[in-house]
Amino acid sequence: MEEKKGEVVLFRTWSSPICTRVEIALKLKGISYEYVEEDLTNKSELFLSLNPVHKKVPVLVHNGKSIAESLVILEYIEECWNTTPKLLPEDPYQRAKLRFWANYYDQKIVPSFYIIFGSEDKERERAIEESSQLLKVFEEGIEKYFPGQSPFFNGEILGYLGVVIGSLACNYQAVDEAIGVVLISEKNQKFLSWVNALENYPLLEETLPPHDKLVARLSVWLKLLTCIRVCGF
Questions:
Q1: 99 - beta bridge partners?
Q2: Are 34 and 12 spatial neighbours (Cβ–Cβ below 8 Å)?
Q3: Could you identify which of 61, 67, 97, 129 might form a hypothetical disulfide with 9, taking C-beta atoms 3.0 to 4.6 angstroms apart as the criterion?
Q4: Distance between CA atoms of 111 and 168, rounded to whole angstroms?
C-alpha cells in the first residue's frame, strides 16, 4: 500500500549506491516520491542550496525541508513513516547494534573498497588484504552479536542493515568486471554469502542499477583515475 505524507523528492544520481539505499527504503515503505537525477559534474543551484555543507547526493526533500547523508535519511524515513514494514526492530539495544555495524561498514569497509578501485599493482594487493581484514572484523562481529539470526532482515522484510550493505556490496560483480580483480576476497566467504542472499531479494534486484550500464560507468571513472595518476594531477 502506498503511503502519502506530504511531498517527497529524492535528489540522486543513478550510479551511486549511497543513493540507491535511500530509494530502496522509500520503496520498502511504500512512499510515493519524485526522482530528480543530479548531474554531479554540473550541480544545479537548487541542489547546492539544499545541501550547502557537503554538496553531495543523496538529498531527500520532504515538504520543502531537506535532509542530507544517507544514514541520516534512513533514520528520518523510519521515524517519519513509522508504520510497517519497519527498517529497525523495536528493541533499543538491537537497534543500537545495527546502527553500530552500519556505521562500521560505511566508515571502514566502504572507503577500503574505494582504495582498491583507485589503486594498482602492489598497492592494490595491499588494499585488498586490508579490506579483507576489515570484512573479517565485520563477519566476526555479526556472528557474535547476532547469533542464530540474520541482522540484514527485520523478520522476512529487508531491514536497515540489509539496505545499507546490499545497496553497495551487491554491485561487487560490476566492480570486479570494471577493474579486473576480485573486490571481495575468497577469505570472506561469509560476507559474500550474505551479499548473495541480499542480491536475490526482489526489491534489491528491481532497484540496483543495470549491471552492464554500471560497468560502463565504472570503466570511465577508472580511466579518469588512471589519467590523473599518470599525469600527476
A1: none
A2: no
A3: 61
A4: 12
Cis ω on the peptide bond leading into residue 89 (within 30° of 0)? Answer: no
Does residue 44 contact residue 11 with C-beta atoms inside 8 Å? no
Condensed to tens digits (0 to 9), the pLDDT of residues 105-148 reads 999 999 999 999 888 899 999 999 999 999 999 999 999 999 99
End-to-end CA distance of the chain: 51
Q: Which pTM value belongs to this model? A: 0.92
